[in-house]
Amino acid sequence: MKIAASIVLAATAAILSTPASAQFAKPEDAVKYRQSVMTVMSTHFGRIGAMANGKAPYDAKAAIDNAQIVAAMAKLPWPGFSADTEKVSVQNRAKPEVWSNAAKFKEDGDHLVSETGKLLAAAQTNSLDNLKTAFASTGKACKSCHDDFRKEAK
Ligand code: HEC
Q: CA-to-CA distance for 9 and 44, rounded, in angstroms?
């Protein structure tokens, strides 16, 4: 939790200290950043999933801690999909539609932010049933964007 919180702080500080036009020094850095955020978000979302799917015991406090991280992370990846990363040479799985259908991509990102806000609110009710429902609907938000905008893994 402490480490994750400091990642969020570092990420926020990085956003605040650079102009919107050039949030990253190099396009490669932007790709690394967005993938790292997705990885951290996925790790903590997976911990909630384990509880929702009965693979880990339900722990209301752990659910809230993880949901806080997921909700914070959901706000971060999007500047990492800057236009200068479309033709970047480093390995990545963003489809060209991220840029050719940018309005839908942004809508899907905003949808994730709202779903993860609801996930946190559900965790805070201390109800496993509420957590399960919100986990499933947040998972749909991940999947729907991945279906449209992320290439299959090789
Ligand atoms: C608005 C679109 C969108 C949403 C919503 C979204 N993702 Fe992603 N995700 C992407 C794209 C595009 C990539 C590929 C990025 C790349 O390779 O640079 C990606 C990559 C990933 C990766 C691989 C990261 C890596 O190291 O290469 C993971 C894991 C992931 N997403 C998990 C999630 C989870 C979990 C959620 C929901 C909680 C989610 N994503 C929601 C678009 C999205």
A: 17
Give the mutation target among 24, 118, 137, 150 for probing the ligand 1 site: most ligand atoms within 8 A of CB. 150
Tokens of 26: 């190099």
Average pLDDT per 10 consecutive residues for the chain, totaling 154 residues: 66 56 87 98 98 98 98 98 95 97 98 98 98 98 98 89
Which residue in 99, 69, 71, 56 sits closest to 7, CA to CA?
Answer: 69
Atom 8 of ligand 1: nearest residue by CA position: 38
Distances (CA, A) of 32 to 26, 36, 44, 65, 115: 10, 6, 19, 25, 24
Specify the amino acid at residue 3.
I
Give CA–CA dist 143/103, Å, rounded: 18
Residue 154 pLDDT: 74
72 ligand 1 Cβ < 6 A:
no
pLDDT at 11: 64
Distance CA 117, CA 31 (A): 25
